Amino acid sequence: MKEANNSEKEIRQMLPVMLIGLVTLVMYTIFVTFYCLVLLQIDVEQQYVDKNLFKEGCAKLVTFHLLLFLMIWSFYKTYKVNPGVVPDTYEWKVDPDINRIKEREKTGELRYCPHEKKYKPDRAHYCRAIKKNVLKMDHYCPWVANCVGFYNYKFFLLSLFYANLCCFYVEINCYSSFPNFYSNPNVLFNDVFYLFLEIVLAVVILLIIFPFFLFHLYLTAKNYTTLEFCVVSIFLFFVYAVIYSQSTHFICKMNK
User: Fold this and answer.
1) What three-state secondary structure class fits 115?
2) Where are its TM segments located (predicted)?
3) pTM of the prediction?
């Protein structure tokens, strides 16, 4: 029964990953079939092939596959690499070096995890999804079915970077060529429709992941994790709320 529940949980965790794979496959098929292969003119007789268009198609096909490979490799590494956990040693279970740890509980004691029964290093937090304390935990990402931490954050950032590059590359090429495809009587309606669909998909995905990528660039520049940023934001919200409340009360009192 327990094994069945674990299998069901693993399947649920992989659903977002499979969705990303499906969207990637759809966009790949459309771009290669209805854009690159059109430039390669595979259905045109040899004597009528435009060599400039053929060279352009080859260059774009190679560039796109290179970007796609880098994106998939980064995504796989984010999924596969252990984010970093607290060592299962005597030091972290019983006797941590207090001189190496700055973060404390509100009581002033060292942070202790009751789940793993270990002391926590600085910036480590317990992730309920993987049931481990993760070093420099950023967040649990369902889209890679893994927690993002110290050892795989670089690959997570690279995944966002190459995903944005792929979408920008597809968007720029398809959008710039769409008027020519639309006005060309030799191009079938299906080709035009799928090219338009590719443009829409690329725009929608960019609207989602590009701001997210900029946000993580900001976090990297400030040496924040997502968790730390949220804690600071909540703290500042309450500080501003208190200041606003006191200021409003003072102004109302002065106007009486």
Assistant:
1) coil
2) 15-38, 58-76, 153-172, 192-218, 224-244
3) 0.85
Phi, psi for residue 82 in degrees, rounded to 5: -65, 130
Q: Which of 146, 148, 177 is nearest to 16 (CA)?
A: 146
Distance CA 235, CA 225 (A): 15
**pLDDT tens digits for 101-149?**
888 888 888 999 999 999 999 999 999 989 999 999 999 999 999 999 9
The b/e string for 209-238 (b: 16+ C-beta within 10 A; e otherwise) is beeebeebeebeeeebbbebeeeeeeeeee
Where in 108-175 does DSSP place strands (E)?
112-113, 118-119, 125-127, 132-134, 139-141, 146-148
CA 229 to centroid of chain Cα atoms: 17
In the chain, domain spans: 1-82+151-222, 225-255
